[in-house]
Amino acid sequence: AEGTFDAMIQAAVCTDRIGWRSNSRRVLVVSTDSTSHLAGDGKLAGIIRPNDGQCHLDDDGVYSESTLHDFPSIGFLTNVLRRERILPIFLGTSDRLAYYKQVADAMQATGARVGTISGDSGNLVDVLRTVLKTLDSSRQLIVLQQDAVNISV
After folding, report:
1. Three-state helix/strand/coil letters over the chain
2. 26-32 β-sheet, strand order
3. What does the pLDDT read at residue 8?
4. Strand 26-32 to strand 113-117: parallel, antiparallel, or no bridges (unpaired)?
5. 20: Cβ contacts below 8 Å, ≥ 6 apart
6. Buried (b) or exposed (e) across 90-125, using 16+ Cβ within 10 A?
7. Which among 7, 80, 91, 129 would be 20 to 30 A from 147, CA to CA?
8. How deeply is 83 buried, as exposed, middle or buried, from its count of CB atoms within 10 A (0-12, 13-18, 19+)?
9. Nearest one of 79, 95, 113, 80 to 32, comparing CA atoms
10. Tell me, what's the pLDDT at 35?
11. pLDDT tens per residue, the chain (153 residues)?
12. CA dist 66 → 3, 140, 148 (Å)
């Protein structure tokens, strides 16, 4: 497993370091052949402090508090990505597809997308292009609170 969700938090909250423009469409692409550590996994190393969702990149751009903060939960990561208006795209190998589909389902409020890449990532650009095309061809409305909602199109 990797610290993918840690990296996603840092990419989301270190706005100045990453260079996010304020009015741009923010898309965060994760390309991996592994699962990610989840909240609670840090306990195995004695790390019990929850992820604080703050920017902790050092001068070299390295996450400096990996031994101080536990990995973020999917719910916490979802909230951070929604707040920062970032759409996650998970590109994983076929043996990790089910895992990242579950992650994307749990992150439904972000509009997360999933694609399958080959083991050598040779099709990464084509898969990413296909996934990005779905952004322009679909709109998704998610109602988080259902009290007195009237929608007409």
Report:
1. CECHHHHHHHHHHCHHHHCCCCCCCEEEEEEECCCECCCCHHHHHCCCCCCCCCCCECCCCCECCCCCCCCCCHHHHHHHHHHCCEEEEEEEEHHHHHHHHHHHHHCHHHCCEEEEECCCCCCHHHHHHHHHHHHHHCCCCCCCCCCCCCCCC
2. 26-32, 86-93, 113-117
3. 97
4. unpaired
5. 26, 84
6. bbbbeebbebbeebbeebeebbbbbbbbeeeeeeee
7. 80
8. exposed
9. 95
10. 95
11. 799 999 999 999 999 999 998 888 899 999 999 999 999 999 999 999 999 999 999 999 999 999 999 999 999 999 999 999 999 999 999 999 999 999 999 999 999 999 999 999 999 999 999 998 888 655 555 555 555 555 555
12. 9, 35, 44
CA distance 101 to 22: 29
Residue type, 85: R
- The residue among 151, 152, 13 whose CA lies nearest residue 77 is 13
Q: How many residues does the chain have?
A: 153
Average pLDDT, the chain: 89
Nearest to 76 by CA among 98, 54, 48, 43: 54
